[in-house]
UniProtKB/TrEMBL annotation:
Residues 26-261 form the Serine aminopeptidase S33 domain. InterPro entries: AB_hydrolase_1, AB_hydrolase_fold, Hydrolase_4, MAG_DAG_Lipase. This is Lysophospholipase. It comes from the Bacteria. It comes from Hominibacterium faecale.
Length: 284
């Protein structure tokens, strides 16, 4: 079971980034989880608990605009401030478990964030490896160009303006793994204009191999995974990343967007076990 703590004090009155800790004595690795749009770190309890059992400590946080953290719902922006939040998470992992290699693992929007951080994060030299799951690079339902132009304009006029994210529980994974997503009070279906534009623009650069790289994570292993049954983030985006990045790329037949939560005939246990094996086989 996780413990909550204040990871970072925000500038807003009473505002904070809330951290989650699944402690482990003398862990072999520390996994830092970065969640997706509209959800929160507590939804990874099943994944983190299994990683705990495998000998890993786990840390995460509710991204700004999500869960118990501060900010308008869906406003995980501006990107430079979100990168600074990831700095705090990684620094926390290194402080709590100085002997354990850090693994940075992101899903969906969190995958976009981790891919971005791997290229330009201030502490991107710290993680020993990266895991990216169903990243937001391209969407299955592409945004029409005129609509995207309008959202981009709106992001300059009113960056906090919220629009529907379009995420549905039925598209995420096996019903027994996803849980009561629709009734969870910490789940929302919003994304702000600036968060959307930054995600799309960074995703497009990642797909072309055009995002500036500070070299801090050069040579670090990356596991990239995507389910063929994903109805949210297009698997084509991951294929493009795999074509321009040195990584191990795994496709999971039939699994939905949250591959760790499976699909129609899977609870996603095989994905969690794959991550555990992959981390355990790292030579760091």
């Amino acid at each position: 079971m996780y413990q909550k703590f204040q990871l970072k004090k925000a500038q807003e009155p009473d505002g904070a980034i809330i951290g989650y800790h699944w402690p482990r004595e003398n862990p072999s690795h520390t996994v830092c989880i970065v969640h997706g749009i509209g959800e929160y770190a507590g939804r990874y309890d099943r994944v983190a608990t299994r990683m705990n059992e495998a000998g890993f400590a786990v840390l995460s946080m509710d991204l700004r605009g999500h869960g118990k953290s501060f900010g308008k719902r869906g406003h995980c922006a501006p990107r430079q401030e979100v990168r600074a939040d990831l700095d705090e998470l990684i620094a926390c992992a290194r402080k709590r478990y100085p002997q354990a290699p850090v693994i940075l693992y992101g899903h969906s929007m969190g995958g976009n964030l981790v891919l971005d951080y791997r290229k330009g994060g201030a502490l991107n030299f710290v993680p020993a490896a990266f895991i990216v799951s169903a990243p937001w690079v391209e969407l299955v339902r592409a945004i029409p160009a005129p609509l995207y132009a309008a959202v981009k304009l709106l992001s300059r006029i009113d960056p906090h303006f919220a629009i529907p994210s379009g995420v549905s529980a039925s598209d995420l994974g096996h019903r027994n793994s996803v849980g009561d997503y629709e009734k969870d009070p910490l789940v929302h279906k919003k994304i702000t204009a600036l968060c959307a534009v930054e995600g799309f623009d960074i995703g497009a650069k990642l797909a072309k191999g055009a995002l500036p790289d500070n070299g801090g994570a050069a040579g670090k292993p990356m596991l990239l995974m995507h389910g063929t049954g994903d109805k949210v983030c297009s698997i084509n985006g991951s294929k493009k990343i795999a074509a321009v990045e040195d990584c191990e790329y795994v496709e999971w037949p039939g699994l939905y967007h949250e591959i760790h939560n499976g699909g129609a005939d899977s609870t996603g246990d095989e994905v969690i076990e794959k991550m555990i094996r992959w981390i355990g086989e790292l030579s760091v």
